[in-house]
Amino acid sequence: MVRIKICxxxxxxxxxxxxxxxxDAIGLVFYDKSPRNVSIEQARAVIAALPPFVSxxxxxxxxxxxxxxxxxxxxxxxxxxxxxxxxxEFCRSFLRPxxxxxxxxxxxxxxxxxxxxPDARGLLTDAFVEGAHGGTGATFDWTLxxxxxxxxxxxxxxxxxxxxxxxxxxxxxxxxxxxxxVEAAKGIKDAARMAAFISGARHGSV
Length: 206
Fold this sequence. Notes:
- The protein is α/β, with parallel strands linked by helices and 206 residues long.
- It has helices spanning 12-21, 40-48, 65-74, 88-92, 110-116, 164-171, 191-204, and strands at residues 3-6, 25-29, 55-60, 79-82, 98-104, 122-127, 153-155, 175-178, 183-185, 188-189.
């Protein structure tokens, strides 16, 4: 069964609703250029509203080491997710499970990325959009994804309630990650869209 992460949670009630609907994980964005950026105080409130066994993923883009350490010291984070040009050495240095995001376009060799980050818990594939580090709502050509990737594949990029079932059936990812595709507005999750997305993902993996 495919795992489901709802990213860009900014409000406690949205995180709680995502969990109630069946999300396996929620994502908190600690990147001040994102419209879904949260403060440590906001993040703590979201985490406090979650039921047991829902994973908390903290997303960073080329962060200072001190910022990651500050978040980890203040928030109960399970997994780190890096969306910038962070080295594998940097990613693993916090002694937490981590995911490495890769922006996919023709010519990007995901096998090379997997070799460069061999201890990542997975590669998160997103659409390449010039000047953006995710959350764009853009899709990419799924045929660019290799069948023999040695790391778990997390599919992201332009997923929503309309294409998620097909995406899961075609790509067969270990997990899917959605943010803008289940929103009423930037940073504001829509319960009905989250429910439809989670239902579609579950149906696609049956």
